[in-house]
User: Fold these one by one.
Assistant:
Number 1:
Amino acid sequence: MCRNIGLSKGTALYLFSVSKTLNRAVPAQFEQNLQTQDWSHGPFAAQGWTVTTWSDKLLCQTEASPLAISLIEAVPRRGPGPRIELVSIKTHEQKPLLIIRRSPNGGRPVFYYHAPDGALVLSSHLSLLRAWGVPLVERANMLPELYTYRQICPPFTLIADVMQLAAGDHAEAELEGNRWKLYRKPSYLPPPFQAKYALGADEPALISLMRDRLEASMLDTGIDCAGTGCLLSGGLDSSIITSIVRRHQGLADTVSSVYPFEDISTDVEYRYATSAAQALGTQHYVHLPTMSDYLHGTVDAIAIAEEPLMHLQSVLIHLILKDVLRPRNVTVVPCGEGADGLFGGRLQKLLTTFAAKPSLQLALQLPGVAPLLRQISARTNRWGLIAQIADKKISSITSFADPKHILWTLAVFGDRQWIKDNLHCSDVEMIGGRPECMVPFLGRDLRDCASILALLSESSETQVIWNKLGEAAGMCVTYPYLDQSVSDLAYSIPWEAKLAGAKPILRAVARDMGIPESIVARPKASFDINPERWGPRGGVFEPLLDLAKAVIDEPILRSLQSTYVFRAHTLWTALNYAIWVRLHIRNEPLDTLHAELDRSMERLGVASAYRASGRVQTRHSLPGSQM
């Protein structure tokens, strides 16, 4: 089965290099749209340095100044209209200084590398860095963080000596002697809350302003009905996005997807999506991939994203973009990512509860309480967050370097005890580089800090993954809730107002838009799929273990097969990591892994069932084993 998904036509790419006169051959894929200019003139005359820029102009436009410094933007719309600035690279007027900024809501990554000869290389893709001569070597000391959180928080990456900017970050690269030095500087400092917004959802002017900003954040991309694809999960965030596009552009169709290994009787997203589409008046298509599609899509998506996927949902996103929206010539896909972090999640609600009831916090910190809660969580798959935070420190002045800081419980999906036992690591190693990215925010309200951390870590990386999946399918995924005008207003609302119910601000916005009350008032649903459907031995991910065994010993993988939610998500991370190593560190051909996956399904006796349409059973007898 041949799959051509690498640096394919329609993928938005860029590479920007500032180096001494080129002493290496230019790789073949850089010959088209290549711009090289001697940087020995202008206001500061960096003698002997050459600027080289390259981009795929199908989705990415390079606008060169007289110094060949590029402004890189997406062109994700038809006809005239504003564009979305994803990455900007500019010069200082009076000294050899580059100013690099990653958009807070565009999804385009900025990887950077300092070459031994002093050169600075910036790129959207690790594969372009490899082609340019940058060695891709695994950064093994980041594995505890990866297994704990399913991703590495910027500025670090899984590649040694390759760093990255978080969403909204900017950096300054200055010429010091014969080398370029890059200094990362968070460019987005959320504003403090404003007392005039204390009434929250009961303040009509605030709701009207939030609605206006959400609409502007979408319409400024130049969307049109024919070129816009709305992913409607049926939740509040996606319903608001769909309503905006339908109201302003006459959108008629929406799409969603379901896991082929989910039981329809427990498939909340299917019920929410179809009922929301009916209420909003759209024709809705539910994409049900085969199990084989999902497994092969996992491998393809890791190849495209160039990093582990974090979410099981990312595979469904990839399949919708590729198999449903690309044939419809969609160019823009607005997405609800980031809304939970801005308007309040479970951790912010717990912090508010602890502030109102300090005795509850003290009770959780009594000796023996934390271990007991973790035992209950492991047996019942409930109270996971409470068990995680029971013995943590809750203070705005606690050092971020302290691994017991409550912030480091945010978005933990790994089995911490398993990680300690098998990776032989400490609590400090498990939080990785997260303290570094949060230093500028020490002393702020912990609810602000939790929101900021979510945006800088999980949300920032989700943007990168989904944006690459979109661009590989010839479209741009956008994030209206992360537009700075929206996030500034969201941070200006006191947390007490944002947490006075379940997303009261967005529910009020939805009512103001005329979204039916049946959609607005229904409870928030979790669209996660129960690990009982995919975690145990003999489950639907069994064929992926054969691919992972080339990197991770089988007994270790087997020890992760479980219905316990944290253990199961550690398995998902291990499978992703192993496939990533084979594709991006060992540089094995993609077709090799797909062929192995087909053979694994044949060996397990599930090939026919997994290639058939419809949902599949989730447990199978393994050859030579007793189930």
Note: The chain has a mean pLDDT of 85.
Number 2:
Amino acid sequence: MTGDANRELMAEALRELRRLRARIAELEAAGAVPNETGKPHIVGLGCRLPGDGEDLEHPAAAWRFFAAFGDAVRPAPSDRWRAEHAPEPVPPGAFLRAPFAFDAAFFRVAPREARLLDPQHRLLLEVAHATCEHAGIAPSALRGSDTGVFVGASTEDWAMQIARTLPFAAIDGAIGPGANGCGAAGRIAFTFGLQGPAMTVNTACSSSLVALHLAKQALQRGECELALVLGVNVMLSPLPFATFRRAGMLSPDGRCRTFGAGADGYGRGEGAVALLLASDAAVARHRLEPLAQLLGSSVGQDGATAGLTVPSGPAQQRVLRAALRDAGVAPHAVHYVEAHGTGTMLGDPIEVNALAAVYGEGRSADRPLWCASAKTNFGHLEAAAGLLGVLKTVLQLRHRQLAPHLHAAVKNPHLPWARLLVQVPDALVPWPCGADERALAGVSSFGFTGTNAHVVLGDVPRALRGAEGPAAGGPMALPLCARTQPALRTTCRRWADALALQQVALADVVATAVRGRDVDRVRCVVLAHDLVELRTRLFALANGEPADGVWFGEVGRGEPPPTPPPDAELDVRAAAFVRGAAVAWAAQLPATARCVELPTSVFQRREFRLPVDADE
């Protein structure tokens, strides 16, 4: 073939390539082909984790715990299961204070159904609701949307307890979805009216990070614009303790000594973690504030190793490299990795060597890879462990600090730490990059049957950060609601306390209540010119004291009053609202108002345990 003919063929190929690119762009613009170029944003966080004396129910509380060297391990509670079901001692662990407590009325679950509902499902409902509010979205605003639900859950303790405890005559239809893993995601979608993909993922310890990977793919394929991603683990049976102890996996004192010389197994932990993942379009539509960006993710398998539960270093390297390729990030650009880090003499060296092999590429001696694990604080949350690592990493990105890693003052002697260029923070230290450099991090989670996951996160580019709203000229009206009067008074107190700890614009506080919280039966309105006046009046409401500029009411069963006109005085609108009228409070907000981090809904829990006879 002549040179001229070759050139003509190449020119024709280029013309065809341009035509195809133009056609793809047309289809993407029309929504016929999903645009996969956008990286999803993490816009909301939620958790319920064991704490020191009380459970941690807000990301801010979790950060304070991490930063203060928090250690959640305690002796196994004596009332967790029947004595005859635990013939041998159960080691310490990171236990929630009240795993059977649940606000069934809030979620309109009948008492009998609540008693048969897996406490993991109950916990997920509460954390999902709080996560939406943390993002600045009223949960009711998502009803009928294509929002997805992706849950990582693996234990079957509740089904085992039902089989061992419940009389046969007491069995009814609620047990099916209430004790089945698929019900974890399905119940959230049902309760909130979400119509996107909903699934429960079980890959053991990597379940929730695999769920995050699947949620990211669903957003990029255009299957949903928002996705709730959750992980949960509640220890309701002594059987897994006995199983893992006899397999040589458990630490006798319940603590994970990840990277430490005393690593002797992992300690079990429980809790729930959630995040809300959003596409670019959802961020714009709901005026959301991104907390971090999910740049890349990957899932892989160990394959054939020396044993089903034996990890594979080469397989871990493959999943790390795949996530970095997906993120478009060079290994040496990443500053920190939240490790799987179970704290075993076998697993830790395999993981650290894999990290060093991948993330050490192109890394200079003055720029070590920082590495730590939340398991030293909360134990191994198993199916929820991956999302716990993401929660910790996002909090660190936001604060531009690395939290201290516990129980590793003396490092594992089987690793050449200096040569590997891996460093472990033993105190609260600044994020290891300058303010003008984007902070990048990885998170790993490995399942004990070989399914591995890794994600790459970045802090939010400056262009995506919302501008501070201007101080309001006032007065402005703050509407708050709850299911009961005690819950509303508690809400008022929590908001007043929170406002004492942060500098925010009054308009942003009002925007958070208007856009990020649902209207309910018990209502109040507070008029204020500034935050000092707002706090004073919120405290008055919390204490049941009279105060100027405050309205309080409970909507009855009768016909609500008519909606006041938009130009009505604030006090007229406030009086009508607390009696049940619909009021468009958003009209008072400036265009720059944004939602800020404030306490989420108050749950009034009561304990629901399995019935012990057919009459209960």
Note: The CA atoms of residues 296 and 327 lie 4 Å apart.
Number 3:
Amino acid sequence: MVKISNNQLKAFCLSLVLAMSLLPFIHGFHYIDIYATNVPYWDQWDTIVPWVIQYHEGNFHIFKLIGQQCDSRPFVSNAAIFLASLFTDLDIKFLFYLGYICYAVCIIFIIYFIKSDISIDCTTLLLLSIPIFYYSFNSYYMLRFIQNIGSVQYPIMLLFSLATIYLLYRSKSSYSFLLISILTGILCTFSFAAGLSIWFAGLGQLVIQRMNNKGSKILLWIGSALVVFYIYYVHLGFKSTGPHGMSTYSSFLESLVHYPMQKFLCFMGTLGAEVIHQKEIALYFGLIIFLTGIALVVVNRNSLQLNRFSKWYGTLMFGTLTSIEVALARSGDNSYFGSPDTIFFIPDARHSLAIFLPLLCIYILTILYARNAAAEDSHHGGSKGLKTLFQDRKSQNLFLLGIVFTLLSLGIVLHTMPGFEAAGLIYSQQTANEYYLYTYHIQTDENLKNLNPTVDAVRKNAALLERYNLSIFSNDLLNPDDLSLINETHRSKGTYARIESININIINSTTQTAPIVIDLENGEVEITGWAIDKRSEEPAGAVFISIDNEINIPSIYGLERPDVSEVFNNEDLRHSGFRAVFSSSILTPGPHIAVLKIIPESKDGYYLSGQTVDFVYLESFEEAANAPLSSSRWGAV
């Protein structure tokens, strides 16, 4: 038998725990790689897209970065986004990775906080941190990193908030750290709207921790906060109306005064959303988290060690304030966000990074208090009887730790499937949006509204993105006209590609006897089907629908088609479906022919499908009654 030394066992345990700790980080990168797309979405069309275009046109002004964006002035994060966009030709997917890396650094920062508070070996530290890693990178929270501009703004704000809290902790005997913390507080403020909360959380932290010249330091912090708020709201100006204006802020406070119990329950739902994103159940989980936090303070009331753990209470206050803000601002105020008497409320997934801190802080505080209680118990010695088992502080803290660990575990499990399901839906929509942008010149206004409601701005900026080779236009655009027709022997005879429908008209495999009619009033043409590369019997590289051998319509290729993979007994062909959508305005009234141009993965040419589909674009069905088939215009295919 091979004898394993203690050092070898320790090394093995450390390697195992390290691997378990790294998995969530790797999962995050993989999640973004699978579900994120390179397409500007919604608020990005009002910010980063025109900024980068203006830079290329030579008329960009840096002051645009500090302009009001919704209810924030995220100059710091906007600057990071702008610089990253310039270096990557506005690669939106890269911005998601950037935000995720910042978020990962925040989580590592939190682990460093733990390490600085308790002297334990790396294996134990990682073991205690595993629930934090898996919770923080659960699939539902990862939704934040596959949609809109907040994927970068939130993490940068979190990073500066944690830095500020740490520096305030170090300022106990140093004015230098206090001054640096004021600087990071300003950076936090101008990273995202919720960053303003750092001034209130920081004040609370300064109050509870012991330090030299405490009064003057608190006054300096308050004075700095007043100056920042004046600049933020008065000097730079702020909208007076609208969903992100001062009047709406007032309505939030009014709804709190008139409906205090309802808003408290909405806050409980916000806390409960850390465990589950289901309104009715989240409320009860929120109450459990809230009561557990109170119980933790009560159990350790004689040994809170506020000075020692001030950074954790500062972080808890910051996370609680941002959660309260989300609850007040999004749970209803009789204007933009629904009825103010709402009881069951959970924030949208995009607000997940504003609400995830309280549960983590409570978990870490229970670990710290349980460890301290255990140390005290060991000094006193003696065994505890069964009757007094849960009457001592150590047992009570361990019991609370069990509750919080269970809540974290439930948060991981209950967010897993909803996170993947929501990511699939977002990916499908964003893939369609990517296609709409790629084919903006032939798309309807309704389709372009999926990118941003201001269609004219989308069309104008899309043309400029194409001119300057930005975003999805940074890669060479594929065009079958630039390729040659592949040898006849490799042309599909219909078996390896098929147009199956045009709009709601199903096309049977039998020969057409009458053309499909497209009503002029429909405004949009949708063609679906499947295609594979006949030569390799693998998925194709791209599929175009050729109209009358004059217009090549790109398609969304790679849609799921399990029936195709089953017929060919090849699982690799599961994603061989295509869908093409375009405005009917690009067609002239009268008969037309649709044929597939299939480009293999090698992109060394294209071949035609053996199927031709006749359709007629006319103002009424009556005009198409005697429309002839027009396949002869193509010749034999």
Note: Residues 545 and 596 are 5 Å apart (CA to CA).
